[in-house]
Amino acid sequence: MLVKDIMTKNVVTASPNDTVLDALKLVKVNKIRHLPIVEGETLVGIVSDRDLRSVSPSVLASMDIDLLEKTLVKDIMIKDVITITPDESVEDAARLLYKHKIGCLPVIQDNKLVGILTDGDILYCFVEKYHIDVDVEGLC
Question: 3-132 has which CATH code?
Answer without folding.
Answer: 3.10.580.10
